[in-house]
Write a sequence for this structure.
């Protein structure tokens, strides 16, 4: 089994009301970055991360596409600690 493809998506999600906390301040939106990993034998795995407000999501997506995706391509996904 080898990693065949990695697909990312980035979603900007506005909140229906403003939330506030001591660490992030006022939050009117957040961004979710998803990663779908497909293997050569048809297995799929979906992961995600998020950022508060609308900052940083596109950078995370770009890093996965440019750096992590090519590094992981062709590798055995069962070797989690090595990867």
């Amino acid at each position: 089994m080898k990693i065949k493809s990695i697909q990312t998506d980035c979603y900007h999600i506005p909140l229906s009301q403003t939330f506030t906390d001591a660490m992030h301040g006022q939050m009117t939106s957040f961004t979710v970055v998803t990663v779908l990993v497909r293997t050569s034998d048809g297995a799929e795995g979906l992961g995600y991360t998020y950022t508060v407000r609308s900052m940083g999501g596109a950078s995370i997506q770009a890093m996965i596409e440019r750096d992590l995706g090519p590094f992981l391509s062709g590798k055995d996904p069962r070797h989690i600690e090595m990867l």
Remarks:
- The chain is about 20% helix and 50% strand.
- The beta strands are 3-21, 25-39, 44-52.
- The longest helix spans residues 57-72.
